[in-house]
Amino acid sequence: MYKAPVEDIAFTLRHVAGLSDAIDKGLLGDLGEDLVDAILNEAGRFATEEVAPLADIGDRQGARLVDGEVKTPDGWAKLYQDWIAGGWNGLTGPEEYGGQGLPNMLNVAALEMWNSGATAFALCPTLTMGAVEALSAHGSPELRHKYLAKLISGQWTATMNLTEPHAGSDVGALKSRAERRDDGTYRLFGQKIFITWGEHDATDNIIHLVLARLPDAPAGTRGISLFLVPKFLVNDDGSLGRRNDVFCHSLEHKMGIHGSPTCTMIYGDGRFGGEKGAVGWLVGEENKGLNCMFTMMNNARLTVGMQGVAIAEAATQKAIAYAMERTQGRAPGWSGSGMSPIIEHPDVARMLLTMKALTQGSRAISYACAHAIDMSHRASGDKQHWQERAALLTPIAKSFSTDAGVDVASLGIQVHGGMGFIEETGAARFLRDARIAPIYEGTNGIQAIDLVSRKLPLSNGDHVKGFLAELRDIADQVRSSNLDGFGETAARLDSAIADLEQATGWLLKVQADGKVADALSGATPYQRLFGLALTGSYLAKGGLARVSDGADERRIALCRFAAENLLSETAALKDRVINGADSLAAARIALA
Amino acid sequence: MYKAPVEDIAFTLRHVAGLSDAIDKGLLGDLGEDLVDAILNEAGRFATEEVAPLADIGDRQGARLVDGEVKTPDGWAKLYQDWIAGGWNGLTGPEEYGGQGLPNMLNVAALEMWNSGATAFALCPTLTMGAVEALSAHGSPELRHKYLAKLISGQWTATMNLTEPHAGSDVGALKSRAERRDDGTYRLFGQKIFITWGEHDATDNIIHLVLARLPDAPAGTRGISLFLVPKFLVNDDGSLGRRNDVFCHSLEHKMGIHGSPTCTMIYGDGRFGGEKGAVGWLVGEENKGLNCMFTMMNNARLTVGMQGVAIAEAATQKAIAYAMERTQGRAPGWSGSGMSPIIEHPDVARMLLTMKALTQGSRAISYACAHAIDMSHRASGDKQHWQERAALLTPIAKSFSTDAGVDVASLGIQVHGGMGFIEETGAARFLRDARIAPIYEGTNGIQAIDLVSRKLPLSNGDHVKGFLAELRDIADQVRSSNLDGFGETAARLDSAIADLEQATGWLLKVQADGKVADALSGATPYQRLFGLALTGSYLAKGGLARVSDGADERRIALCRFAAENLLSETAALKDRVINGADSLAAARIALA
């Protein structure tokens, strides 16, 4: 059973991602180390004792559509109420509306724990938090006044309605329509699919944020507006009015995250009588809906990345526990009597260490991204630097972590042997739950396009170059530390960073030359190359922190394993970026 | 929907794996190219039209235990009867008992198609075929006479009973016991788990092959005997007698292959009255049961490899079809109107080409392994050479193909985007079905131990060295072909083979020096390195075959893609083999 790794999480926040530094510099207001500990410990307790025990029933029972109503798994509605009673929904929300105004880093760390406990459950507040952000930034004073406090407390939840059958990655292709009414409201019509927690029984209202087109809107992405559409209309005194013209038509049967209702939502069908059309209010300006949505999507990408980290952590814990318990055969050098625990077999140890290194690497990348977001809001003077850092790290945090989630969960099954394939063991669920994360909130392929074509060119390529210099500095510190435990880490980091540097330079150059297809052919290998180089660098940074002897030694040893066993892949990835495009283009005939 | 790739399969058999060569040399009796075509075409038709359409209901409905009886999914019992009526069960069985005595290569090719159609279904005859082999080789004349004809026709099916809760990879730990009776029979007692198709309603008898210990047996693997235990006793005239004391206690809930009943079998519980103990007959000699089982396990490893090839093929077909149909965004260089098919996006093309290359590589390796098995039975003079080749290729065919099955199925989900996560699409099932294959029939980690510690040292390392020379020869032929389409293939092959050569030499040396842990630490990366080098070499061999212009061009282009995009991984793998062990050993403290 999952136990929240509060110590690892706190260490990574403080010494790798920059939390202690920001606190020391006074950039996080009156947030002190004690409060950080208190929050992480209590989140860890809640995730371990309350959330994780309900994951299994959520998977087995799933969300069910009964007479048009969605039933969440047994115990989940109460779990949600307990969870919001703990104040967890409003950790980062604006204090003006009852939020705690804490840095994003803490929320991301807590999200990791909720997601390790039960990803399908954690999805619900994740969507609400995104909506809070979009409304805070773009909602009118009236909308903010009416909805924000209840969304921040979690009394109501929220959804994001983008996807339609023919508009997935290409949001611009959507067809849902909105009509203006004289009173300033709108009426919405259309079908949205893949709406996470679109309908459920855990709260008495649900606030939908919906992308749709006005009749006179320009084609494509510039003709999309964002609307707020509540399930029940809200009276001026905050009480609930009549049911709005929106309902859940069906639930998807998914490979995983069964406890999360994935809804097809119908707007404006007239099912509840009266004038057809779901009543909606404009968020932001007409035809500028995509801008508003991007506010929440960027953060949502990081929170999806956390799902990868979270599942990797839970899968790793489970696999290590099993490998220490299960005995089979005799490992080389085993001097005990009888069979050895399988963790003693080098191949099993290799799998577990790979799992652990990928988990910690993706955690560090994701927390560093959250730190950059925090700093972009709070640091004075270098706002642009931190905005660019957050922008650069977001696609890597999303893609590398979610790929790690899948790879680690799959290795976890392998460590369990035949038991891993049996659902009751629980290892298989991790892979089933993890498999969606590289897809939604922008597929990892789209993250790679974003990274290569929009993020590398920031500040004319100077931002990424500055970042590479920071990584080189970490390698230099490893070298000058003279700590034996690091083994060949410094040299391995040097070549990984050199590979990243060459690939970066090449991508910037071919794009400057207008060779877009060449750049995009290597985007995915480049994204992984970046993630691996960061994994090595951040594990090294953690190893250098030196806070307590035993833990230091373990961190340094894991860093060395990553450097000497995982980083060797960077040369192959660089090669694919720089030399892979021609053969890829030529081989298209093999797909005909 | 899956369509059997008969042309690709026939090409790989003939021009890559050596079938035409063997036919030309007269090593396969009167088997002619026409008969090969007829068999493959008819198998392809049956797999496409009869098996594949029932895969989905098998997954959704699964095998069910009702009142102690196992119900197979709707339509599967009839499908099985139609399938045996086609003579498919006895393709390679001895002619003496009604088999067709055809080479293993053809059966393996047909197995690929059954498994692409529905892996859970194909598992049933796969087990029977293994039992036929074990009985043919080790059964007494009486047992052969009584059982072989009906197992070869498929009128009865068979099972393999090895695993017990505490004896999985380590078979020697098993505890099931057998007692001698005066009439020469035995009585068996114990519990076996994970018994594939252990109980079902598709035939009127099931023949269990069961490993158990005699009371006076030595401890460990040298005290295990093999017994034949029929579900219903068989009278001398072949009619069925009373129910034997064995039953299916429960079915596992598995991540995939739902249509295949995975049974816990109880022997000697007395449930059907009378004296307790399941009546069994010894196969082979007492305490030599593991030898007998190995006969069938080696072949079973190749047939599990075919599951990987088969799922990879089916997943690739589905993903390509979807990517040609689905439109989103505008790919660079897209000149059509509106959105482009996603296959035009370089990142999607990269995924599809990777899937295709891994599928064809693992197919070639597996067919080459089957060829070696055939030659070891039929070639005159170089029997040992072919035995060693089969022994060397078996762990690679099993592990590389089943890893490819998982990786390709996972990429297939990614290509489908959100739809890939929805069960009705069918892409998710491939990953769920594929995930067991790297585990059962010896985990891929155990295959790697076998490869490194038992197969490399064959003929003092000379066998593997000779094989490497054959691969070098292929690279030379590519170079001297002067075909532009191959791009950098020759040079890329050279370095992949050099990496393999160095890693091989290193492994032989450290084992000679007694450094077992060092060798085993690198066993899994080595196994993948071997598989990748073979993939490149065999795709090149296919590209060199030159049989028809268009197809030749496509094969050469795919080979080049594999050489220039996938083979770069071999340097990293070699590095892990040669330089990875120390940091792996040092990092064990991080798992504490």
From TrEMBL, chains A, B:
Top-level division of the source organism's lineage: Bacteria
Keyword Flavoprotein: yes
Keyword Nucleotidyltransferase: no
The reaction(s) this protein catalyses: 3-(methylsulfanyl)propanoyl-CoA + oxidized [electron-transfer flavoprotein] + H(+) = 3-(methylsulfanyl)acryloyl-CoA + reduced [electron-transfer flavoprotein]
Residue ranges occupied by any Acyl-CoA dehydrogenase/oxidase C-terminal domain in the UniProt entry: 287-451
Name this protein carries in UniProt: 3-methylmercaptopropionyl-CoA dehydrogenase
EC number: 1.3.99.41
Job of this protein: Involved in the assimilation of dimethylsulphoniopropionate (DMSP), an important compound in the fixation of carbon in marine phytoplankton, by mediating the conversion of 3-(methylthio)propanoyl-CoA (MMPA-CoA) to 3-(methylthio)acryloyl-CoA (MTA-CoA).
Positions of the Acyl-CoA dehydrogenase/oxidase N-terminal domain: 38-155
Family: Belongs to the acyl-CoA dehydrogenase family.
Single GO MF annotation: acyl-CoA dehydrogenase activity
Needed cofactors: FAD
Annotated Acetyl-CoA dehydrogenase-like C-terminal domain residues: 467-586
Any Pfam family hit: Acyl-CoA_dh_M
Keyword field: FAD, Flavoprotein, Oxidoreductase
InterPro entries given in the database record: Acyl-CoA_dh-like_C_dom, Acyl-CoA_DH_CS, Acyl-CoA_Oxase/DH_mid-dom, Acyl-CoA_Oxase/DH_mid-dom_sf, AcylCo_DH-like_C, AcylCo_DH/oxidase_C, AcylCoA_DH/ox_N, AcylCoA_DH/ox_N_sf
Gene3D superfamilies: Acyl-CoA dehydrogenase/oxidase, N-terminal domain, Butyryl-CoA Dehydrogenase, subunit A, domain 2, Butyryl-CoA Dehydrogenase, subunit A, domain 3
Ranges for domain Acyl-CoA oxidase/dehydrogenase middle: 160-266
Coiled coil: none
